[in-house]
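Data card: per-record layout.
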Amino acid sequence: MTPSRLLLMVMRIAAAIQVVLGIGFWTGRWVGLVGVHRMVGVVFVIALWAIAVLAIAQQRSRAALAAFALLWGLVVAALGFVQQGILPGDLHWIVRCAHLIIALASLPIAERLAKRDETGA
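The structure for this 121-residue chain is written out next.
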């Protein structure tokens, strides 16, 4: 198993944990676990960045997608850390949904980079 594939597994596990925790937050039950959610989110983003850096180091022809992944990870992390202050009240569900969609969109990006690492394509 390549390092990129291992990191991709870490991302998948972190994503599953995040979704479960997120459901707990949306239902108002696990608000005390926000710190855990942030920590797992940091692991998720670092794994994405590591996959991107490996892609740049191993296949410079994939630098554009890898650079996009680095930027995307920054967007995911920034939105995660500031989302509580965006649209507080009845419309905050929009921010929550956007955060979920943007974070989960990281997985196909990482999949493409990891697959290219494996195949060299």
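Known properties of this structure: The CA atoms of residues 11 and 107 lie 7 Å apart. Residues 3-119 form one domain.

See the next section for split statistics.
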